[in-house]
Every structure is written in C-alpha cells, then in structure tokens.
Amino acid sequence: MERLKNNQKLLRGLVFFGFFVAFLLLMFLEFIPHRVNLQVGQVAPETIKAPRSIVFEDKAKTEEAREKARSQVPKVYLINPETNAAILGEVNNFFLNIEKILKQNLPPKQKEKQIINELPFSLPAGVAYDLARINLERWKATQRAATEILGELLKKEITPENFTEIKGTLTEKVNRYNLSYPEKEVLILSLNYFLRPNAVYDPEATEKLRDRAAQAVPKVWVSIKQNQKIIGEGEIVTPEHLAKLEALGLLKPRPSFRNLIGAVFLVFFTMLTPLFYLYLQRREIFENLNLLILLGIISFFILALAKSILAINVGAFPEMTPLVGYAVPLGAATMLIAILIDFNLSLLMTALLALLIGFGTELSLKLSIVSFFSGLAGGFGVSHLSQRKDLARAGVNIGIVALVAILALELIDKTPIGTAFLAALIFGPINGILAAIFTNGFLPYLETTFKITSAVTLLELATPSHPLLKKLLMEAPGTYHHSLLVGNLAEAAADKVNANSLLARVGAYYHDIGKLKRPYFFVENQFGSGNPHEKLNPNLSTLIVTSHVKDGVELAREYKLPQIVIDIIEQHHGTSIIKFFFQKAIDINGPEVNAEDFRYPGPKPKTKEAALVMLADSVEAAVRSLKSPTPGRIEGLVRKVIKDKLLDGQLDESNLTFQDLHNIAQAFDKVLSGIFHNRVEYPDINVEALRKEKKS
Q1: Distance separating alpha carbons of residues 461 and 288, to the nearest angstrom
Q2: What keywords is this UniProt entry annotated with (predicted)?
Q3: Domains observed in the chain
Q4: pLDDT of 693
C-alpha cells in the first residue's frame, strides 16, 4: 500500500513537471520558425521577404505624428483679474499724482522738478519742461487714453511669449489719439512701464488639449504584400526595417534571463495554486491522477488556442488586429472543468488562465478582464445543467458578457467609439459561439477518454427515448413505471442530502433493467397471469430474483452505460435478505435454513446516490403493498424500511448520517403522500334515466 502511494506521488510529480515544461514552452513558442536577430546600424546578412501580407501600425511614426500634434498646441493661460486691477490701479495712481502736482500754485520750474522726482522712468530732454506747463484738461485726456488702451489690452491674455509683441503695438495705439508730443511720450513710457503679463499658465488644461490633439491623430498604418522585400543583403538596418520585421514576427527578441526567470515563477505558482486548493478542499480530485491530467490538457488547449487567435492579423481592418484577442473563448475551459471535474475549481482556473492569457499581450489587463468575466458567465451557466440546450444558453451568456466588457473597457481606454462598438459586436458574440462549439465538441471525447460521466450524458440517459428504457417499457412495463417512481423518490431525497440528484434519478431509471431477462418472474409484470414462484422452491426463486442484479450489470455494459450507473445497478440491493423466500424456506425446511443463501451478493451501496436508490426501491415496493395507504401508515412504513436497512448494515459504506436519514424519510413522505392520497368516490349516475326525466 505504501509503495502504491509513493508511485502515485511520483506520477503526480512527473505529470506536474511535464505540464510545467509544456506551459513554459507555450509562452515562448512562436508560430514563425525563421526569425532573425538584427539591430539598427547592423549590415543585413541576407535578403528577407515578407512571408504573408499584413497591415500593421507603425508605432514609431504614429507616436512621432502625435508628438508633433502635441507640440503645436499652445500653452493655455488664464487671465488673472487681480493682476489687471493692479495694473489699472498703478496707472491711475500715476496720473493722479501728476495731476496733483499740476494743480499746485507753483512756478513751472518747481513743478518740473517735482514731476521728474515722481516719475518711475526717465523722460526725453524737454518733455518734463512741456509737461509742467500742460493744461489740466489735456492731462485728463491723456489719462483717459491710457485707461482705454489698457482696457483694450487687458481683455486679452498677455503672456511671457506675446508680451514683447503686445508692447510693440503701444505706439500705434497711442498715435490714434489727438495728443501732443510730450503727452504721447509720457503715455507710451507709462504704459511700457506698468504693463506686464496678466495671464497665469494652466498646465492641466494645456495637457488635456495636447492629449486631445494627439488622440485625434490617426494611427499610421503600413501595408506589406506577400514576398515584398523587407531588407536586402548588405543593406544597413534602419528602425523602419525593424518595425516591419517585428510586425511580421520575424524579429527575434534578444534573450532575457530576467524574462525567463519571471515566466518560470509565473507558471510555477499558477500551476501550484489549483493543486494547493485541491489538496486542502477536494482531496479526492487531488488524488485522482486522471482528473489532474484532464485539468492540464484543458488548460493547455485553451492557452494554445489563445496563442493562435492572438497571432491572427486582420489585414482588411488593421485597427481590429490588436483587439482580436477578445475572441479567445476561455468560457469553454471553464465550462469543461465545471462539467467534468468541479465547479469551484473551474472558477479558480478561470482567474488563473485569464491572467496567463493576458500576460505579455498588447491588450494585457483588458484581455484578462474580458476573459475572466466571460469565463465566469460560462461557469455559472452550467452550474445547474439540466438539459443540453443549457450549453447553448451558456454560450449566449458568454457572448453578452464579453460584448459589454469589451465595450466598457475600450470606451474607458478612449478608443474611438466606432471601433469600440465594432469590436464589441464582433468579438463578443464570436467568443460565446466558440465557447459553446468547443464545449459541445470536446465534451463527449473527453468523457470517453477519461471515463467521466458528465451531467450532459446523464441527461441523455434520462430521456424516455433511450433504447434501453424503451425496451423496458415494452417488455416490462410494470418495472418501467416502478423505476420512474423510484427515480422521483431518489431525486427528491438527493436534494435534501446534497447528493447528485440527476445521478440518483438516472440510476433509479436503470436499476432494475436486469428484470428484462425474465420479466414475468417479478410481481409488477405479472398482471394477474399467475405467479410462477408458486411452483418453484424458495432457493430457486431466490436465485432467479437475485440474478436480475447480475443480468442488469451485463445489459448495462452491453448498452455502454457509464460505470457510475452500473455501480448503482450492482449495489442497489446491497446484501439485503429476500424475506419472503427466506420465510417460505423456513416454513418448508424448518429454522435450520441458512439466511446467507437468501441474500443478494452485494456489494453494499458505497455512495449516497446508490443508497438512495436502494431506500427508494424498498420504500416504493413496501408502500405499494399497503391495502389502505393513509399518510400515517405511509410515514410509519417509510421509517420502518429505512430503520431495517440501517440495522441490517446496508448503509454502513454510504456516508449517510442520521440527519440525512431523517431528511430522506421526510422527502419520501412528501412524494408518496402526493401519489397515494385519498380520492373522492364518484357516484354512479344513470345518464339514460336523467335524460328521460328531463324530457318529461
């Protein structure tokens, strides 16, 4: 036993290492085998031609054009009202101070001296002399001119960049007024002195305008035709050559040890996370090497598919090429893992695979987000799978979620509205369609290869059109209807004890198919034609009755029923004793009869579902034998049957608790009370007599 455990650990380690290497190689795998390692300024060792036609964005030229557009946007300035008020106030104060001097009753020479002292700037020769003798009304006219000119100038943004230019217009503006030479000189000099920039630089508004201008610049697309020469032998490599080679996937990136180490850690921890979860939460899956290999295959397939889709180049619509990754149907992996392995595990794998899909792509985080939400939509879409069309409905859900997520993320990323809507309307539905197609297509092959029975297979087995059920209906109709009722009982009880209700129902439908070999030896198929067991000794009758289990297993294998259904067929009687024939043998041969000769061969039920079918089978047969099945008698009989099975040890290996048995009894009571309820006895009415009475 210890050796077997060690072998299992070794196999799990080898499987882990194999997938680890496979995932690592997939991350660095390129679909173009012939790649070159060139750098700017190097001499090309060979002539390289384009292996296919593509249209790609020249990012360097696009960025250059956008930077040019940004540089052409002028700085944004905001007029400062306080600066304007300060300038006007200073100019008015200047003119008022000179006006006070002019109003004084002083000799002109003295006024001239005071004016020179008051001025913050120098005057040309003779101007102060004339100014001291100016008429007061002329001075006020000069002041009005100054106010008007400033009012006109200060309405505009005066910045450090245009300040010199604005000052150059002062002479022209002053000359518009009918002023004398000294008045004009003082006016020009004062305006030159007091005028200054009135606008404050707004870096935030400037950047917004520049960003808007850059975004308005369309991408620069470059078209390359198949077999077009990219670079000739002996030519000097330029940035343009490298851009074309990179777009074609022909440029080999320089190896980076840091990239390799990062990828190793990323893959290692991405693989370790689900294993750690399974070890702690779902040990039975962790110890099932078959399921671990299946998990690795599904994950590898979806990552390889993502790699292939991301390599697609949409030549006719180059702006769509970077967005084609949105079509990656991660939902297919989520649905397959949820259906074949475990629902909670599928949600965890969705997050991890979304991370790996977005890693290293141009879309990066956006692709991971869309993949994650579309995967969740797929997982929840099959969480309660009840019919095959639920898979198609899950595909629709994936498409809708992907469409909304793509549109939201592209609009947030400021992608042009037309491109965002087109990408969402194309790649969202494609994502959902591919997910549904791959899930439907691969599901039966994976089930067969890994011997897993999914809910979809069980649903197909539950349809009345299945050949074996049709055969049971035609050749053993009593057993068929008994099986349907057992299925209803088992399914209702399974819902109460967290068992697989679909498996319980399907197992119940097929549990008695072995009776097809000798249908009339079972009471439900005799229909008043006599009981053949009355002419047989009890031992032979027991052999015939117990053989229906072995016959059922053989028939199930002939019709290729899943092993979990075969197990229920084999275990649904456990090692129970056939009380009727045992008692009959005692009546004939005395108490020395060996009870073991009248037991089913087993094995005992090993799952909740097999135990539920056993209990439902026994309860249905017992209740059907009641002469007047009142609710109270039904409830008592149900609990007696369950207690007998418990005391006989038939439930020892089924993992059912006492609380489960109580819940099962309640579920059985509810179903059976609805079937065997009392009915009103309809009176016998003579229609002919009523008709005659009506006529009379």
Answers
A1: 25
A2: Membrane, Transmembrane, Transmembrane helix
A3: 2-28+256-452 (no CATH), 38-55+224-251 (3.90.105), 59-76+202-219 (no CATH), 80-197 (no CATH), 462-675 (1.10.3210)
A4: 64
